[in-house]
């Protein structure tokens, strides 16, 4: 097995924890230089010496997205602005954006984590890497770019969209690896087919890196089959740099979360108490190697679990399971708690439909309904309307069995669901009912 940084990736657990403790204390000292953490820790009497073991992190308060927003723009900055060389920020269409600052050291450390991640997924300096991702304030562009360059691939900073151009770039330069959000890849594939091209025959692609938005295992397998490649799951969030936080190795059995750079906790989102390995809860993360803006015990809202046991690749860093949803994307319909990924899991197993879907919540005749709209596959012609009915009925049953609420399933023509520019918008809530929903247990 080859590693990007063998020593750090295969440390003994106790040595890794020793390194985490050292870095956690240094992080605490740094964070205390910021106005926000400085005041908070002072008021609670927290000093680096309060931390005697990694588990002592539980003595520290959580940080939420709201804390970042409330202290916009510079409240969490822990160094002179002169030392800061870049910021990334969320779009901020509602309220203050969340902004994260980086020093030279931070960018360097991030590039290294990205290179390590890509190397673990089998990418090498001989690869031609096309980054199909927005460059700018979104972290997927520059975050990947620096990692690809650090690894030594020939990088193509293609940016997002313009599928015909993407295909041309792939063909002109013999792209072997590409990174894109999963919801875009189905559309890219359609453009290949519409132009009489087959990505398996007409490109040199062998690997796709997919991430930045939730997707199911079934969706990943579809992408792999369409392109004839291996597709690796990449997880990150801008508060923790962006991509390069957790990544699948070639075993594809969970995402190694780089524990020399982050402390990971999984907590029950209601009680905020830690849950045992293997149990799903909210991911809470702490930066260990960021100078400009350390973030401590950040509640990501992402739901996942630690996969117990060791990975056959030899990396000691624990593995996260794929994200099953966010505490804030769950919706309640007919008294049942539903995560969009549960619906996606059913749809992606149906060969008659494509990967394009959305869930509309709407009040019809005073009743709240869940309408699942999904595009048919291109090779399904409108002549088969009777079969459509059977397919829709089957999907209604399968979704109801999964989420316990009966949906309305609408099979729609290919290309008819509006596409968003960036990450896919899966749920549209148009409900008008003001009556508070009765929450009953559906498990
Ligand atoms: P942003 O900070 O805007 O890049 O968004 C980060 C969020 O995107 C995370 O907190 C997750 O909710 C989601 N996300 C990123 N990567 C993945 C992934 N591989 N699987 C599922 N969700 C992801
Ligand atoms: Zn592994």
CATH topology name of the largest domain: Rossmann fold
Please give the share of residues in helix.
25-40%
Strand content: 15-25%
Listed once per kind, the bound small molecules are:
adenosine monophosphate, zinc ion
- Gross geometry: globular
Q: Kindly report the name of the CATH homologous superfamily of the largest domain.
A: ANL, N-terminal domain
What's the architecture of the largest domain, going by CATH?
3-Layer(aba) Sandwich
Question: How many β-strand runs?
Answer: 21
Which assembly state applies to the chains in this document? single chain
The CATH class of the largest domain: Alpha Beta
Label the structural class.
Answer: alpha/beta
Report how far the terminal alpha carbons are from each other: 42 Å
* Tally of DSSP helical segments: 12
Task: Provide mean pLDDT, rounded.
Answer: 93
Number of domains: 2
Outline the low-pLDDT stretches: 434-443
Tell me what the structure shows.
The structure is a single chain. This protein folds into two domains: 326 residues, Rossmann fold; 110 residues, ANL, C-terminal domain (GMP Synthetase, Chain A, domain 3), CATH 3.30.300. Helix 7 crosses helix 8. The protein is globular and about 70 Å long. The protein has a nine-stranded mixed beta sheet, with helices on both faces. It has 443 residues and is an alpha/beta fold. Helix 6 links the parallel strand 3 and strand 4. The chain binds adenosine monophosphate and zinc ion (ZN).
């Amino acid at each position: 097995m080859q590693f990007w940084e063998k020593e750090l990736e295969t440390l003994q657990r106790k040595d890794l924890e020793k390194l985490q403790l050292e870095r956690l204390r240094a992080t605490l000292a740094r964070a205390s230089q910021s106005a926000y953490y400085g005041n908070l820790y002072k008021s609670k009497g927290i000093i680096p010496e309060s931390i005697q073991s990694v588990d002592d992190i539980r003595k520290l308060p959580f940080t939420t997205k709201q804390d970042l927003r409330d202290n916009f723009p510079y409240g969490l900055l822990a160094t002179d602005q002169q030392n800061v060389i870049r910021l990334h920020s969320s779009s901020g269409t509602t309220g203050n954006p969340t902004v994260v600052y980086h020093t030279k050291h931070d960018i360097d450390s991030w590039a290294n984590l990205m290179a390590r991640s890509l190397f673990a997924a089998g990418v090498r300096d001989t690869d031609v890497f096309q980054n199909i991702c927005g460059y700018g304030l979104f972290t997927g562009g520059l975050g990947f770019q620096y990692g690809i360059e650090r690894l030594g691939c020939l990088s193509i900073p293609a940016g997002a969209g313009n599928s015909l151009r993407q295909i041309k770039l792939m063909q002109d330069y013999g792209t072997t690896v590409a990174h894109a959000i999963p919801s875009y890849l189905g559309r890219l594939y359609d453009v290949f087919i519409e132009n009489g091209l087959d990505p398996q025959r007409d490109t040199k692609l062998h690997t796709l890196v997919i991430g930045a938005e939730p997707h199911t295992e079934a969706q990943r397998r579809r992408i792999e089959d369409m392109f004839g490649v291996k597709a690796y799951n990449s997880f990150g969030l801008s508060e923790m740099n962006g991509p390069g936080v957790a990544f699948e190795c070639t075993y594809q059995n969970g995402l190694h979360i780089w524990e020399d750079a982050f402390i990971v906790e999984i907590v029950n989102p209601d009680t905020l108490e830690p849950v045992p390995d293997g149990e799903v809860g909210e991911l809470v993360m702490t930066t260990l190697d960021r100078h400009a803006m350390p973030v401590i015990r950040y509640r990501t809202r992402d739901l996942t679990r630690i996969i117990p046991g060791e990975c056959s690749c030899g990396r000691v860093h624990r593995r996260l399971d794929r994200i099953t949803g966010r505490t804030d994307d769950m919706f309640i319909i007919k008294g049942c708690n539903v995560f969009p990924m549960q619906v996606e899991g059913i749809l992606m197993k149906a060969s008659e439909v494509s990967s394009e879907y959305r869930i509309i919540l709407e009040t019809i005749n005073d009743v709240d309904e869940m309408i699942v709209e999904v595009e048919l596959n291109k090779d399904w012609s409108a002549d088969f309307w009777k079969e459509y009915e059977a397919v829709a009925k089957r999907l209604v049953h399968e979704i109801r069995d999964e989420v316990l609420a009966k949906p309305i399933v609408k099979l729609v023509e290919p290309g008819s669901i509006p596409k968003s520019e960036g990450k896919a918008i899966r749920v549209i809530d148009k409900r008008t009912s003001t009556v508070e929903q009765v929450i009953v247990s559906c498990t």
